[in-house]
Amino acid sequence: MDFRPLMCLLVLSLQEVFKILFEVNPAHIWKEIQINVTATSDSDEVNSTLFDNSVKISIPVKYEAGLRFTADRHMKEDHIIVKEGEQHPRVFNGTSVIGEEVKISYTINRDVDMATPPLKLRVKYPYLSPRENILLYLTHVTSSQDVRCHAGHLINPLKINHNNVHTLNLKKETLSDFLVGCKDHPCESFDCSIPHVNNSQVNVTFRVWKPTFIKAEFTSLHMIVHATLENQNTDLFMLSTANHARDVKIQVSKEALGGIPLWIIIVSILIGLLILALVIFALWKAGFFKRKSMEDMEKEDMKN
């Protein structure tokens, strides 16, 4: 630890208050700052009173990690649309036929030239619906050399390939944002260990399980892939709230059925006729349709 002296001249006073500002060198990370304060006098002082002329002050220090955490989504379209009458294969012999591909790239960059704490990236995503239909299917996880991800058991869990086909067994259900969320329903998750940040990256690839949404009843919903960054050295470092979590939304919409059903047209016509009849009846009761006789008109003319 580097010690540098600082001298302050004090006038004759029983008490003196002063402020010292320190600037931390990011190249040297210390758990605490030690300050030794010694008071001396130009006059002679007996040895018995010298013991209280010095004091040691220790200040615990925490550093905010200079990081930038980003999440980028890559899809062919802005959101996924289930078309009217869309069909799906009954058997999957490869992950490419499951549905649209969604890629998410998580990047952790070091902003300043200083040491960084070891980190843990946790990715959580909706896997099953309430009726256990698959929502998002994890197919690939890749990372930079300094990152270790523990997601092997979640990558293509059904082992779908040409030699191991998967036969669909769907259950019809109604879906919504709430029913595909992770707050009240269990989701799958995996962790990635990042010992030292140096432009670290984790790439995650999903397939939207299209048959679930073809059969389900819904209009539009969002599935959220939630990623959090955790500091593994809380004694020395802290993460800013801006670098704590990233949410990536995947929107799925269903096309409305084309045309208007015949029964809606018939009911609309009947309601229109009923309203017209009520208006005519009200006008008749008010005397709007009564015509004056010729005698009444002649009497009015004679009066005039």
Automatic annotation (TrEMBL):
Which GO terms label this protein's molecular function in UniProt?
A: integrin binding
- What Gene3D superfamilies does UniProt report for this protein, alphabetically? Bicelle-embedded integrin alpha(iib) transmembrane segment (1.20.5.930), ntegrin, alpha v. Chain A, domain 4 (2.60.40.1530)
Q: Which Pfam families match?
A: Integrin_A_Ig_3 (PF20806)
Keywords, sorted A to Z:
Cell adhesion, Disulfide bond, Glycoprotein, Integrin, Membrane, Receptor, Signal, Transmembrane, Transmembrane helix
**Which superkingdom?**
Eukaryota
Q: Known SUPFAM superfamilies for this protein? A: Integrin domains
- Transmembrane annotation, as ranges: 260-284
Q: How does the protein associate with the membrane?
A: Single-pass type I membrane protein
Q: Where in the cell is it found?
A: Membrane
Signal sequence span is 1-22
Family named by the database record: Belongs to the integrin alpha chain family.
The protein's name is: Integrin alpha third immunoglobulin-like domain-containing protein
